[in-house]
Amino acid sequence: MYPYVIMREKPMFPTCVGKPQEEQLQCFKEALDAHIKKYFYYPTEAKEVGIQGRVNVSFCIDKEGKVKVLGVRGNDECLEEAAKYMIEQLPILIPGKSNGEPKIVTFAYPIVFKLQDDDTYVGLKDVEKCPQFEGCEYVSREKDFECFIEHFNQYLESKGVLPFDGDKDFEEGKVFVGVQIDKKGQTQLFSTNGKTKELEQRARELLEAMPTVKPAIYKGEPRAVRFYYSVKFK
């Protein structure tokens, strides 16, 4: 294995192709930063008890451009697992070379988990009003949750995806997702777990394209909510 910094022909993201040699490291870091920003999530169990910290992840890019995590070091196991997951979502990169031959190249990257003052969310069943799709604005509180789930499922089904409430076996086409609807009513996934990265990415793209809804209300103010769900592609 060769450290990234000593390689003349460095591994690169496709967006870095054509960059001058002296700009390759900066381009690599910027692309990696953008990837982590896209896939970043804060483990619920860590956030609930206020755990923060820094996780150093060492990984390699093999001769085919595939990424493999070599080690993680942080102050909490669930933060380490989250950091490992984010790095494992990296796409296939262009491998580094020495004398024209592909080589295995190592890189180290820190991921910081820091809670913000407004970085809070509540459970879907704990709010005064659930996020509201059009058509749910005037239902009673007793029917609020039911209306949200009904319209959420209708959106999935309109895209050819089935909501699924069975056990947690990884059967074909099934993805477990952690869903957040933020204070602006926009949907993001903070976790995905499926048989393949391709299925996970399909689930992410589909749900994050969901139309904006009215945000949940908690203690009279808009508040982000999180919940877990499972979907099955036909």
Provide the structure class.
Answer: alpha+beta
Low-confidence stretches: none
Number of strands: 12
Q: Biggest β-sheet: count, sense, barrel?
A: 6 strands, mixed
Helix segment tally: 5
The overall average pLDDT, rounded, is 89
Which range does the strand content fall in? 25-35%
- Per the principal axes of the C-alpha atoms, what is the gross shape? elongated
Write down the secondary-structure element order. Answer: EHHEEHEEEEHEEEHEE
Radius of gyration (CA) equals: 21 Å
Distance between the termini: 42 Å
**Helix fraction by DSSP (H/I, runs of at least 4):** 25-40%
Secondary structure layout plus pairing:
Elements: E1 2-3, H1 24-39, H2 44-48, E2 53-61, E3 67-73, H3 77-88, E4 96-98, E5 101-103, E6 105-113, E7 121-123, H4 141-158, E8 161-163, E9 174-181, E10 187-194, H5 197-208, E11 216-218, E12 221-233
Parallel strand pairs: 1-6, 7-12
Antiparallel strand pairs: 2-3, 2-6, 4-5, 8-12, 9-10, 9-12, 11-12
